Amino acid sequence: MQQITIQTRDGQCRSFVFRPDGTGPWPAVLVYMDGLAIRPAMLEIGERLAVSGYFTLLPDLFYRSGPYEPMDPKRVFADPEQRRILMEKFMAPATAANVMADTAAFLEFIAAQPDVKPGPVGTTGYCMGGLMSLTAAGTYPQRIAAAASYHGGRLATEAPDSPHRLAGTMRARIYVAGATEDASFPPQMKARLEEALTQAGVTHQIETYPARHGWVFRDTPVYDAAAAERHWQTLLALFASTLPR
């Protein structure tokens, strides 16, 4: 793992690069973090993707809020005051518009790496990052070949920047995994997203796992080992079918 800084429109974004063993070139994946920020469990996503043969970039989407210590997910889940701070200080500046502006810099960085294969990349995201992954697929359709969202919320709302409104511009293969216990992605939202993607002719799959929101990460109280492994199976299958090796 290598920690770097990427210049964005709004400042210096701390980011993490993971390279497979060997010399490459490799297909690239851009990872959008969850709302609990950069911490060991989040870094493990990049590490496993690299082991699987993908050049991986994991940016810190909370860089606008300044340096911070790794968050304790169990405390955030249990303490309303911690969640308020998280929402107001960190998540509020990380709007879809801001992150999409950042994504231009992320994609430019990836394209400039000599050990990355030319061509479109894959994206994956978790929680708030799931929304960003789908939004990126609609914002940069020629740059993204596959986009995944795991326990992503607010994927098809009345908001003008809801990801489902970008279905008509998406060219990527889309995979979405929600949870049976997830107020941010209820059945009616799943149906709305399904309808938008189907009508736009987007190749996609939407599944609901028997789990709770946030199940992928081992450091959360809702971690589900079986569902987390299912996440890896579907994610790697998505990239294997879309990103040339």
Structure description:
The chain is of the alpha/beta class and 245 residues long. The protein has seven helices and eight strands; from the N terminus they run E-E-E-H-E-H-H-H-E-H-E-E-H-E-H. It has helices spanning 40-51, 73-78, 80-91, 96-111, 128-139, 187-199, 225-242, and strands at 2-8, 11-18, 28-32, 55-59, 121-126, 144-150, 173-181, 204-212. The longest helix is centred in the last third of the chain and has 18 residues, at 225-242. The model has no long low-confidence stretch (mean pLDDT 95).
Main features:
8-stranded mixed sheet; 245 residues; alpha/beta; 7 helices; Rossmann fold; single chain; 8 strands
Task: Give a short summary of the structure.
The protein is α/β, with parallel strands linked by helices and 245 residues long. It has seven helices and eight strands. The chain has a single domain (2-242), classed as 3-Layer(aba) Sandwich (Rossmann fold), CATH 3.40.50.1820.
Q: What's the level 1 CATH class?
A: Alpha Beta
- Overall structural domain count: 1
**CATH domain topology:** Rossmann fold
- Judged by helices, strands and strand pairing, the structural class is alpha/beta
Summed up, the helix count is 7
Give the N-terminus to C-terminus distance in angstroms: 21 Å
CATH superfamily: Alpha/Beta hydrolase fold, catalytic domain
**How are helices and strands ordered from N to C?**
EEEHEHHHEHEEHEH
Report the strand count: 8
Give Rg in angstroms.
17 Å
Architecture, CATH level 2? 3-Layer(aba) Sandwich
**How do the strands of the widest beta sheet line up side by side?**
1-2-4-3-5-6-7-8
| Helix percentage | 25-40%
Low-confidence runs (pLDDT<50, min 5 residues)?
Answer: none
**Overall residue-averaged pLDDT value:** 95
